[in-house]
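During the second half of the funding period, the structural biology subgroup turned its attention to how the target accommodates small molecules. The most pressing case was adenosine-5'-diphosphate, which had performed well in the primary screen but for which no bound structure existed. We therefore specified the complex as follows and requested a full 3D prediction, including the ligand pose.
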Amino acid sequence: MTTDPPAVTVGVDFGTLSGRALVVAVEDGRELGTAVHEYTHGVVESALPGSGSRLPPDWALQVPQDWRDVLRFAVPRALAAAGVRPEQVVGIATDFTACTVLPVTSDGTPLSEVAGFAERPHAFAKLWKHHAAQPEADEIVRAAEESGQGWLGRYGGKISSEWQYAKALQVLREDPGVYAAAERWIEAADWIVWQLTGEENRNLCTAGYKGIHQDGGYPDAGFLALLHPDFVDFTAKLEFPLSQLGTAAGKLSAQAAALTGLREGTVVAVGNVDAHVTSAAARALEPGHMLAIMGTSTCHIMNSDVLAEVPGMCGVVRDGVVPGLWGYEAGQSGVGDVLAWAVRTCAPHEYVAEARRVGVSVHELLTRKAAAQPVGGHGLVALDWHSGNRSVLVDHHLSGLILGLTLDTRPEDIYRALVEATAFGTRMIIEAFEASGVPVEQFTAAGGLLKNTFLMQTYADVLGRPINLLASEQGPALGAAIHAAVAAGAYPDIRSASAAMGRIERSVYVPDPARVAAYDRLYAEYRTLHDHFGRGGNDVMHRLRALRTARES
Ligand SMILES: Nc1ncnc2c1ncn2[C@@H]1O[C@H](COP(=O)(O)OP(=O)(O)O)[C@@H](O)[C@H]1O
Ligand SMILES: O=C(CO)[C@@H](O)[C@@H](O)COP(=O)(O)O
């Protein structure tokens, strides 16, 4: 007797450096096939594609065609790898880094693709890690404090330079022509759904966490006018009915079917954020269960039935992760990125050659060399702020610090000190939640950094708590596939789909008491440096940042 081929969904995760498509069995979340497509232009940080004109410090742009190419190349390859036919696919969902935001025309065309704008930097998509709008973010916070905006507390008292308003205000100030031509200002998370269905759609997750949409609305015109007279109608570029997560945004258009190899009419789920969608994959939806998605950056996502204003959190949004609960987000803007910096700048040629000879990454080589020494053996304490501080200080013009360097310090010592510093940063965040009355009862990790077992054990020792793992290397894509199953009607809601399709391994890393005690002492040193350089003890980091100039080539 022949059995029907299994119903599947496709999750497409748009990360910082690449897009990954994953084919998942609706019945139990089995991962049947996957494919990755690296963005051709990667992260545009030093010079504009085409013209080659140099970009100032702290810029980070992306090229929308790179994202379309993920749909074109990774989706069909994932279907082929899974041995799945298009008619088995009942739904597709995407997730994106956020706040990755772009100016588009009324039909969704990116301004960077419109004649006359291809050589204007502000016409391009601003990646989440574009930190050049810090002055604008500082002004937004000042104006919100002085005018008593109630929504400021929902973001821990700070609005990030990474989010929609600071980035848009920077465009208005530096290229008003691009600002005026931007009929819509849209998250890439929604823009990619628009490419799939042919119609605009907006999700409540990015609107809430990155677009200051609280209690049913955006900041009012009176507040926006405080920032710039021409900013008064900015939210008109955002206004659109917001869709609940896990619902259908529409059906796959004929054009998108040709692009992806899927059937026209396949259900397309509402867009979502790479971190928030992963909670469903990790079965981390219940209150008090914190999920850390550890990659280029780390995002901390946790639901609660308690509404609190946690200092320095990225935001709290009703239904922001799952309907019926308050979804909290915190984060560290540089984690894998900071370690990549160490690999690029601290590893000597002989280390690179050794890694190649042994057949491991330089990350792995540095980790192996660093792992043996006792806690504190390197005599270093670092601040993990090479990409600024997202939580709890929300200041992207802070910078990294390594204290204790001597002539004996080795590259692996620096690498390990930075691993420890990122763990200390996570501990600061957990303590901020608990001090504000939002308990953190479970900690689960997901993301590309799970491959580093030493790093994960260090986190268990620094946090002093066991660490669960999301048992998938494709957490965001699995989460998106789960949302697609709900949107296609295979499950009544995200919770039941997560219970059936999600995967978690509990207490994979358990803290070692001796190392916990040793790290408590190092953490006290970290906190002293954190508060001194991050809370006004010495403003030297801002003074040094002001002296930085545009990078040559
Ligand atoms: N063995 C490793 N140990 C620690 N970090 C690593 C290792 N290998 C890669 N990385 C870091 O992982 C990050 C990429 O994370 P990943 O989750 O794959 O991508 P994304 O952040 O785009 O979702 C990079 O910043 C890279 O420096
Ligand atoms: O900020 C968020 C989510 O709010 C992330 O999309 C952003 O930090 C990028 O995440 P990755 O480190 O690229 O996975």
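Two results from this model are relevant to the next phase. The chain has 18 helices and 21 strands. Residues 15-17, 295-296, 336-337, 339-340, 361, 363-364, 447-449, 451-452, 455 surround adenosine-5'-diphosphate (ligand 1) (CB under 6 Å).
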